[in-house]
Design goal:
Blueprint: H1 11-22, H2 30-43, E1 47-51, H3 54-64, E2 72-76, H4 82-89, E3 93-97, H5 107-113, E4 118-121, H6 133-141, H7 143-148, H8 154-159, E5 163-168, E6 175-176, E7 179-180, E8 187-191, E9 204-208, H9 216-226, H10 235-238, H11 259-270, H12 272-291, E10 297-298, E11 307-308, E12 314-318, H13 323-335, H14 351-354, H15 364-371, E13 373-376, H16 384-397
Parallel strand pairs: 2-3, 2-4, 4-5, 5-8
Antiparallel strand pairs: 1-9, 6-7, 6-11, 8-9, 10-12, 12-13
Helix pairs in contact: 1-11, 2-11, 3-4, 12-16, 13-16
The chain binds pyridoxal-5'-phosphate.
Pyridoxal-5'-phosphate (PLP) binds near residues 83 and 124.
């Protein structure tokens, strides 16, 4: 069986994790710090804070911005549940909008969804392909849109407009107008979950790019404390002689990244541009070369003049089929020993959101994308022969 997206675990990873385990320091410490520094350089963000997951990072930022009951947060209907779940955790209302043919949030639909209660927009770089950040960043700065914004916390007054919180769970290494994803919006949050392009088993990182008068280094410090119970000193600082006394300045959260996991990230990030991305791109290009020869396939957009994907998910679509036919094709691919997937079941089709009154019929492009989509295996260790096997299985099944 060709698996869908196993992590790349080799001797280098095992050695670095073992070194962390033997170092005497296994939770947040020097390795997490070094990983943050590497991510800051790589992403181009002003500051980067590592956390325990993308979900924890996005929720931390919503809470930092003071999002709560009565507030609205705009999310695409086509994403993983985490994007909307964290809004619900804060007691706020997720407002879903439709996406475009490229799977990403429709900026005109965002505009129509704006109300005086809108506090945050959460674009998702689906499959690793960047959203339209020029349009989104311009939208929240329009005088009319600013005037409609009603601030209720100090952070909201300081920003004076809707916050853009980018769900970049898929898009580490993707490019937007020559810049890496990470400096593209006010806040950008990566995921290092086991199935993502770069993994730490579980983990995430928050990139800060807040405009003046915010001091991103100060916000970083505040968030670090917020991610560690609001405790004034972390565990490492407390081990220094005579430095045991601490205070707790707020009832914070517990979502820090341990050094044992950061160790995986250090190895992965060092070889990300040289090895991971080129291999993933080669697999994308091989799929495109094969499937573009048949009119029945709709090839995903993953490179344009302004954008380059991180090649996270290859979302192939088949023209003119129903959801049931798609499911049958997938079954037939599985029977040929190839694991495939669907990214994603749209939020309005999930019980938790259907019960809140969301209807998939309100999101026609989302449904159309979903109903004809099959995600193909893409990962570093997938061989050329396996790529050919995937292609044969798909062609047979269709
Ligand atoms: C994986 C994923 C997340 C959640 O990431 P975690 O690190 O597991 O919290 C959020 N959004 C999208 C689009 C994802 O695919």
């Amino acid at each position: 069986m060709i698996p869908f997206s196993p992590p790349r675990i080799d001797d280098k990873i095992v050695a670095e994790v073992a070194a962390a385990l033997r170092s005497g320091w296994i939770t947040t410490g020097p390795r997490t710090k070094r990983f943050e520094e590497m991510l800051t350089a790589y992403s181009g963000a002003a500051n980067v804070l590592c956390v325990s997951s993308n979900s924890a990072g996005m929720e931390l930022m919503l809470r930092w911005y003071g999002v709560g009951p009565g507030d609205e947060v705009i999310v695409p209907a086509y994403t993983y549940c985490a994007t909307a779940n964290v809004v619900v955790h804060c007691g706020a209302t997720p407002v879903m909008v439709d996406v475009c043919e490229d799977f990403n949030i429709d900026v005109e639909a965002v505009r129509r969804a704006l109300t005086p209660r809108t506090k945050v927009i959460m674009p998702v770089d689906l499959a690793g392909f960047p959203c339209d950040y020029d349009a989104l960043n311009a939208l929240v700065r329009e005088p009319e849109v600013r005037r409609m914004f009603s601030a209720s916390t100090e952070e909201q007054r300081t920003l004076g407009r809707i916050l853009i919180l980018e769900d970049a769970a898929h898009s580490l290494g993707a490019r937007y107008r020559g810049k890496h994803i990470g400096s593209t919006a006010d806040i950008v949050v990566f995921s290092f979950h086991a199935v993502k392009n770069l993994t730490t088993a579980e983990g995430g990182a928050i990139c800060l790019n807040l405009p003046v008068p915010f001091d991103n280094a100060e916000v970083y410090k505040k968030l670090r404390t917020k991610s560690l119970h609001g405790q004034s000193k972390d565990a490492l600082a407390k081990t220094q002689i005579g430095n045991w006394r601490y205070d707790v300045t707020e009832a914070g959260f517990k979502c820090n990244m341990p050094d044992v996991l950061a160790a995986i990230g250090l190895v992965e990030l060092e070889r990300y541009d040289a090895e991971t991305l080129p291999r993933r791109k080669a697999i994308f290009d091989a799929y495109t070369a094969a499937f573009s020869q048949h009119d029945i396939f709709q090839i995903p957009t993953y490179e344009t003049a302004e954008k380059a994907s991180s090649y996270h998910v290859y979302p192939l679509r088949i023209k003119g089929i129903t959801e049931q036919q798609r499911d049958k094709i997938m079954q037939c691919i599985f029977e040929q020993e190839v694991a495939v997937n669907v990214h994603f079941i749209p939020l309005p089709m999930l019980t938790a959101y259907r019960e809140q009154g969301f209807r998939i019929s309100d999101y026609p492009v989302t449904y159309d994308n979903y109903s004809r989509e099959i995600s193909l295996p893409v990962y570093f260790d997938l061989t050329d022969e396996q790529v050919r096997q995937v292609i044969r299985a798909v062609l047979n099944a269709v």
